[in-house]
Amino acid sequence: MAPQTHRVAALPGDGIGTEVLPAAQRVLDIAGERFGVRLEWHEFAWGAEHFVKRGRMMPIDALDTLGGFDAIFLGAVGTPGISDVETLWGMLIPIRRVFDQYVNLRPIRSLPGIDSPLKRAGDVDLVIVRENVEGEYSEVGGRSYRGQPEEAAYQQSLFTRRGVERVARFAADLAAQRSGRVTSATKSNGIIHTMPFWDEVVSETLSNHPDIRLTSVLIDALAASLILQPSRHDVIVASNLFGDILSDLAAAMVGSIGIAPSANLNPVRKHPSMFEPVHGSAPDIAGLGIANPIGQIWAGALMLEHLGHTDAAAAIVAAIEATLAAGVMTSDIGGTATTEQATNAIIAALASAD
Question: Model's pTM, two decimal places?
Answer without folding.
Answer: 0.93
